[in-house]
Design a protein that fits this description.
The complex is a heterodimer of chains A (about 425) and B (about 250).
Chain A lengths: L1 H4 L3 H5 L12 H13 L16 H4 L21 E6 L2 E5 L5 E5 L5 H4 L12 H9 L3 E6 L9 E7 L4 E3 L2 E6 L4 E10 L3 E3 L2 E6 L4 E9 L4 E11 L4 E10 L2 E10 L5 E8 L6 E10 L5 E10 L4 E10 L7 E10 L5 E10 L5 E10 L2 H8 L5 H17 L5 H15 L5
Chain B lengths: L1 E10 L2 E11 L4 E5 L6 H9 L5 E9 L2 E2 L5 H6 L2 E4 L6 E5 H15 L7 H15 L3 H5 L1 E2 L5 H15 L3 E5 L7 H14 L5 E6 L12 E6 L2 E6 L1 H10 L2 H8 L3
Parallel strand pairs in B: 3-10, 3-11, 6-9, 9-10
Antiparallel strand pairs in B: 1-2, 1-4, 4-5, 7-8, 11-12
Classes of the chains: A alpha/beta (about 425), B alpha/beta (about 250).
């Protein structure tokens, strides 16, 4: 009650932000406002933020901008690029097989789809995004379209102190197939607050490679909300290369039979970086497979958090759900907090989960060195081998090469 | 080639090597035999540069250099090779990839250009044939899921690839059936030349039927207590180590 009398941290934090002029549904705007009125930044007493302190984030003085001068170049040759700079949608070309519409130019009918599966209750970040999002994109993969080349979104922040609440809704329509590469980059102190809504239609197939290459001063809190219809396939690979504080909320609602869901991730924080992956796979319907593999290598004083929850609802019989989180701490001061969770309400399912955290195998390092490899090369090889299980899940070899080249730069790896 | 002089080494305050002397010249094969706990594995670990062992006294000269001052990788680059008693499994690290890196880092150390991918693969084919290693195993993860015999063969394959000046075979015969023993020994014998040397560490003499030593040494209680030729190994086989224990334990 006391906090209501004085101005909350959150109000101060958002004092410079400009309310959206999009004609979103009244309910969600009101709901967001109400959440932001009544809640403040979560603290480590909050179950979902137990290991991730937001004090530094809450003290930032951020603003929104219309500066949209981009600098980073897309890493892929054969891709079609949509670019967003400092929260502003810049140019995009027509892409064969896709219908792309800005929220600001969309029909009422489409606008009403926004936020359908984005929880607002008690969630200040989804609420901030909803209330302050300047514009967004509907990206529809047209019915039965099979798009071969990856569609690349570069989301870049390069203005000091920028707040970038971008919003994207990707709808893979019935029978379609597409592959997205999301490239998050930043060069300065900033907050990236993207909300992605994915709707995977019947028998549709969508693969997302999400690469986070954020500045050592950049905060990133992202929300991916996925809704799967029957016979659909969804796969997301989250590669967190750098960033001061990165929190990924990935929630997947599997609401149809015979779906396949894959979520993989790897993270290699160093210095005082923090990387936090919270995932939920919610099986509502029977006869589905889901598999989750997250692997981390933690250096310096970095902190890692993994919280993976799998629900199997009463009706969801014959579910195969597999979940694994493995970590290697390569410095004395790194910390990992891992919590895999299963909640099963059906009785005919096959589920497994596991979590391991350890150190690099010294005997293996010695073995490699005794053959003439430098310590650096031996460590590089061992790290590559460890995260290789995750990188192997990326189908596009150009993306793998790009990730590799960044890792060599960031971690002073030997080029092997 | 290697001159070990009055070597003392300990682990966790316990002295294991207590003044070991050994000289091996180019072109020679030496066998070191001894009962369990004599310090055989400690000797190979110390020579390869395991950091858990503390050298408290003595010196090791390898090809004119002070071996004890070199890092593990530099010892390998100078031409020292240890075939492990228990080869490590390293999931995800491909055997040939790591060997290519090893070979190139050794070449770089010697001021030579990197080997081309084509030449390297030709070398792999040649050397797998030499030690009878299934070429599929060569490209798999290091020792992962290998049988005991395959692991030992992989050690000799690596030795063949790196062409060391001095190879130390640490209980390479343990866990091998007679066929595997012959294949491994044939591999070793074919790598023998007047310019390199081999130290065979073993508990049993049966390996020495295949790899014929020029000298046999008995290691007991951290020292070489007896040296001789091939017939010494046969005597040990026949009488066991008890007479050694009796003879030298009483002298203390």
């Amino acid at each position: 009650m006391e906090s209501n009398l004085q101005i909350s941290k959150l109000k101060k934090f958002s004092s410079n932000f400009i309310e959206t002029s999009l004609s979103l549904k009244k309910e969600i705007i009101l709901h967001s406002k109400q959440i932001l009125e009544n809640f403040d930044f979560p603290t480590t007493r909050d179950e979902h933020w137990k290991y991730t302190r937001l004090t530094k984030l809450s003290q930032l003085l951020l603003h929104q901008t219309s500066n949209s001068n981009g600098v980073s170049l897309p890493p892929l040759n054969n891709s079609q690029v949509i670019s967003i700079v400092n929260g502003n949608i810049t140019s995009y070309n027509r892409i064969e097989g896709l219908s792309i519409t800005k929220f600001s130019e969309a029909t009422k009918e489409k606008i009403n789809l926004i936020g359908k599966y984005v929880p607002l209750d008690g969630n200040i970040f989804n609420s901030l995004n909803t209330l302050y999002c300047k514009d967004g994109l509907f990206i529809e993969v047209n019915e039965n379209q099979r798009i071969e080349n990856p569609i690349q979104l570069t989301i870049e922040n390069n203005e000091q102190g920028v707040f970038s609440p971008i919003r994207i809704l990707i709808h893979s329509k019935k029978g379609s197939s597409a592959q997205f590469l999301l490239n998050f980059e930043s060069t300065c102190e900033s907050l990236s607050l993207p909300v992605f809504e994915y709707h995977i239609g019947q028998n549709a197939r969508l693969t997302v490679d999400k690469i986070q290459l954020e500045s050592n001063k950049a905060f990133s809190i992202s929300s991916d909300q996925v809704y799967q219809e029957r016979d659909s396939y969804f796969k997301i690979n989250t590669i967190s290369l750098s960033g001061k504080l990165t929190r990924n909320n990935l929630n997947i609602l599997v609401d149809g039979e015979n779906c396949e869901t894959h979520l993989n991730g790897t993270y290699l924080p160093k210095d005082d970086q923090l990387i936090d992956n919270h995932t939920v796979v919610d099986h509502l319907q029977p006869n589905c497979n889901s598999s989750e593999l997250y692997k981390g290598v933690l250096n310096g004083k970095s902190i890692g958090v993994f919280n993976g929850k799998v629900f199997v609802r009463p009706n969801a019989q014959k579910i195969n759900a597999f979940q694994s989180n493995a970590n290697v701490l390569i410095s004395e001061d790194a910390t990992m907090n891992s919590k895999p969770e299963l909640e099963i309400y059906a009785d005919d399912v096959k589920c497994s989960h596991g979590s391991t955290t350890g150190q690099m195998d010294e005997d293996a390092l010695f073995y490699l060195r005794s053959r003439g490899l430098s310590t650096k090369s031996a460590r590089t090889l061992m790290t590559q081998a460890f995260i290789g299980d995750v990188l192997n899940k990326i189908e596009n070899s150009e993306v793998v090469e790009y990730v590799h080249s960044k890792l060599i730069e960031l971690h002073d790896w030997t080029e092997l | 080639m290697i001159k070990i002089n009055n070597l003392h080494a300990s682990i966790e305050e316990k002295e294991i090597l207590k003044g070991l002397n050994l000289t091996v010249n180019a072109g020679e094969v030496h066998a070191i035999m001894g009962p369990n706990g004599a310090g055989k594995s400690t000797l190979s670990s110390v020579l390869a540069g395991r950091e858990e062992y503390k050298i408290t006294d003595g010196s090791v000269e390898f090809d004119g250099k002070n071996l004890l001052e070199l890092s593990t990788e530099d010892r390998a680059r100078e031409g020292l090779f240890l075939a492990f008693q228990y080869p490590i499994e390293i999931p995800g690290v491909s055997n040939v990839n790591f060997l290519r890196t090893a070979l190139n880092e050794i070449r770089e150390y010697k001021g030579l250009d990197a080997i081309s991918a084509k030449d390297f693969m030709a070398l792999v084919r040649q050397k797998t044939a030499l030690v009878g290693l299934d070429s599929k195993l060569a490209t798999r993860s290091v020792n992962e899921g290998f049988s005991g015999g395959e692991k030992k063969r992989n050690e000799i394959f690596q030795m063949a690839m790196l062409e060391p000046k001095l190879a130390i075979l640490d209980e390479t015969d343990s866990g091998l059936d007679i066929d595997a023993l012959r294949i491994v020994s044939d591999g070793v014998n074919s790598l023998k030349s007047k310019d390199n040397a081999i130290i065979v560490i073993t508990h049993y003499q049966r390996l020495l039927d295949y790899i014929i030593p020029d000298y046999v040494h008995v290691l007991f209680d951290g020292k070489i207590v007896k040296s001789g030729q091939k017939d010494l190994a046969l005597k040990l086989e026949e009488h066991g180590y008890d007479w050694i224990k009796e003879e030298f334990a009483t002298r203390k």
